[in-house]
Amino acid sequence: MFFLQKRPHFSFSNSIYDIGLFLLWLVAVLWISTYHEFWRDEVRALSIATSAEGLGELPALLVNEGHPSLWYVILHISQLLLGSPIALKVSALLVAAISILIFLFFSPYRTWQKALFIFGYLPFYEYAVFARNYGISMLFMFAFTAIYSSVKYRPVLLSIILFLLANTNIHSLIIVMLFCAIWIYEKKQIIFRLDNIKMTIWHVIALLIISIGVIFCISTTVPEATSLVTKEISFQLEVRDFVHKVFSAMVYPGEPFSSLFRDPLLKALIPFLLITSLMPSPHRALSLYLGFIAFSLFFLVIYPGSIRHQGILYCFILCLLWMHQKEAENKYFRSERLKSFLFKLQYWTLNLLLIVQLYAGSKHVLKDVNTPLSSSKDFSEFVMSIPAYKNALIVGEPDFLLESLHYYLPNSIYLLRETKFKRYVSFTTEAKRNYSMHELLADVENLSADKNVPILVLISTEIFESKKKIHEHSYGKIFRWNDDSIDLLHSKMKKVAEFNKSTTENFIVFEWTPNTQ
Asked: Is the pLDDT of residue 280 over 90?
């Protein structure tokens, strides 16, 4: 392929530019991470992982989380090794760094294309600075592609990687299915060769490993009936509506990918341009088309996809093009002019996509540098600056507002809706869905009677900004108040701080002291 550079083997002597790019990426990511404030979705995973006494307890803690266990296993082990919440940042950065190294040293792209990718939004920010369970998808997709594209055929190793990929997040399960389909089609002469008993046994083992990974993922992620997450998703679609969504996904597969393609015209064109450019390998073109359809249906029917979810398919696109470089000579197109046109189409479409992601990355990086993502870090510095708050209890409304504090503060957190000390919220029917200011004040008073320490009450600024005197938080949690309860709040507690400069997680802090009348 004319726009790809082929490297016959891994060699540091031939990779001075790749080493330079990696070091530049690493320094830049470390710099950006110093400005990043962890928010609740990131810290929640750490709190769950560190709540387990051992790895055997993790599956029970992950019920109703909607995520497989691999990221929690990584965080649990990292916490044991480092003994600090910084394990969250280190784990995310290490996963991203390994992914970038594999991409730089084993992918066939031009150096400048590699630079565009690694400084794009996903590998530079979302999958490196943000500490979520989506960066590990990029790691295992690149690892699979690098090993699959190598000269030596390693079916068991490939199956182990797909086992791990299946347990990163539910979206990656779709990618596992697509990789398996490509693998079976391209290696069918080896897989179904019955005269080689040893190779047949290896493939049976590989199939068992992948199957176990898929089953383990599904068993971990399927929520119970008590989950509030599933109550926000309507699976009771009418047949007509479902057929319409399937048709929409087939005709306009890029429609739900606004965050990835950034422009209505691009999300209409890029999917079909990429699929068309892969036609020299029809099975890969089909796999990409099916990937778009599967992700589109997931986003349209089950749960809307943000950039972190859409980025998984973006990485799959790069993996397909990575594999596709071996198909420069193929049996499907005899016309050299047509093949040249399709390669050029792929070249310019890929470059356009890389540039779009580079632009998106620069915007989000500047936003993170200039505006806090969460007020949790500023609040933690405020608490640590006042000796009287060293042992203060922290409560809040909504309760999930407190989840990010675990990364910054050792103070105990009490969840009023669940009436227990805990560092993360249960999004189940076991917690109170309806709650009021009167109940909050009564619960804090009772808590204060039992604990002779100051209590800091964090209340979302959204509550005070609402004129309806009722606010519905995420997952159907409702909070009510009236003028009398607000007056009672100010009479029983004093406002000590307000944090309202972040893009999320803003709150007003009230203090309830043990001797409050």
From this structure: no
